[in-house]
């Protein structure tokens, strides 16, 4: 039994029913349907904190999915898992891969900026001021692009950009 069939939450059940109906109605290949099922099961496992299971499902979805746009979301979610586990280097790799396939993914841009901002703060703690400036500038660049794509999102980043005089630079 797939994870999506075991959902106890009303919203998850509703999503599953609608997704299953759409899969039956839309003209998609069996391979595309399988890829979507693995992706959906990965999202479900991820939302429950079952990261190892989620990664297994995402890897299977990547094996089956051929559409670059769909692959970008799978890669983005793999990046989220690595970031949640504190593996920021691997998270960055997956966020960059997601952007290669879909450059209009503001959440990936935001998460890259968050990692650079975090690393900049670590550099300050280690008294590496020049490195922190470079990392803050990188965070700024990624946040500006995320905000350009989603102007009503990332309010905290917009405030940080204003406070640090980086918004219009």
TrEMBL record:
GO terms classed as biological process: photosynthesis
PROSITE patterns xrefs: TPR
Keywords tagged on the record: Chloroplast, Membrane, Photosynthesis, Plastid, Repeat, Thylakoid, TPR repeat
Main location: plastid
GO CC annotation: chloroplast thylakoid membrane
Subcellular locations according to the entry: Plastid, Chloroplast thylakoid membrane
Keyword Cytoplasm: no
SMART domains, per the entry: TPR
Membrane topology category: Peripheral membrane protein
TPR repeats: 35-68, 72-105, 72-105, 120-153
Record-linked SUPFAM superfamilies: TPR-like (SSF48452)
HAMAP family for the chain: Ycf3 (MF_00439)
Family membership: Belongs to the Ycf3 family.
Function statement: Seems to be required for the assembly of the photosystem I complex.
Protein name (record): Photosystem I assembly protein Ycf3
């Amino acid at each position: 039994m797939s994870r999506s069939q075991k959902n106890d939450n009303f919203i998850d059940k509703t999503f599953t029913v609608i997704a299953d109906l759409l899969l039956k109605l839309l003209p998609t290949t069996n391979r595309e349907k399988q890829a979507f099922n693995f992706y959906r099961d990965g999202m479900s496992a991820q939302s429950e904190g079952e990261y190892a299971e989620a990664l297994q499902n995402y890897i299977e979805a990547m094996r089956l999915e051929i559409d670059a746009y769909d692959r970008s979301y799978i890669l983005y979610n793999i990046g989220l898992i690595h970031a949640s586990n504190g593996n920021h280097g691997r998270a960055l790799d997956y966020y960059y891969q997601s952007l290669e396939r879909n450059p209009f993914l503001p959440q990936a841009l935001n998460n890259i900026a968050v990692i650079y901002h975090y690393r900049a703060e670590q550099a300050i703690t280690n008294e590496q001021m020049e490195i922190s400036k470079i990392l803050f500038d990188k965070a700024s660049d990624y946040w500006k692009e995320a905000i350009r794509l989603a102007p009503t999102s990332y309010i905290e980043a917009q405030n940080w950009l204003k406070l640090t005089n980086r918004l219009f630079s």
